[in-house]
Write a structure and sequence with these properties.
Blueprint (H helix, E strand, L loop, with lengths): L2 H8 L3 H8 L2 H14 L1 H11 L2 H18 L2 H13 L10 H27 L1
Helix pairs in contact: 1-7, 3-7, 4-5, 4-7, 5-6, 6-7
């Protein structure tokens, strides 16, 4: 599997990643690190406690990592949680709606990690 095939499989925007990272070598390096970065796990843990500060911080971290990698779907989903819990923003979603969004993020994240594992296996 090529890196472009990986991006197609996981719903990433390879062209955006190239614009940000400037080289395929850097994309390869950092996309491999996603699975060990802990961003997905930290967001899931924050969702269990529904701690507003932790939800904001972990969603913001995921948004940043995924934006830089061109993983638009994950970045956009994390952005919704980031804005929901940004200090000073009024809450718009119920806790159950937030948990539903977090389940969706977790599924997308796990799919991306599985795609990366397959990519690494060649």
């Amino acid at each position: 599997m090529t890196i472009q095939e990986l991006y197609a499989k996981i719903g990433g925007n390879y062209d955006q990643a190239v614009r940000i990272m400037k080289s395929e070598r850097l994309i390869d390096k950092y996309v491999r690190k996603l699975k060990s970065s802990g961003v997905g796990e930290k967001l899931a843990e924050a969702g269990e406690s529904m701690d507003a500060g932790k939800l904001f911080e972990s969603a913001h971290a995921m948004k940043g990592v995924c934006s830089n990698l061109g993983l638009d779907g994950l970045a956009g989903a994390a952005d919704e949680i980031t804005e929901e819990f940004r200090p000073g923003n009024p809450r718009k979603l119920s806790d159950e709606a937030v948990k539903e969004k977090l389940r969706d993020i977790d599924e997308r994240y796990r799919a991306a990690v599985e795609g990366i594992r397959q990519y690494e296996e060649g």
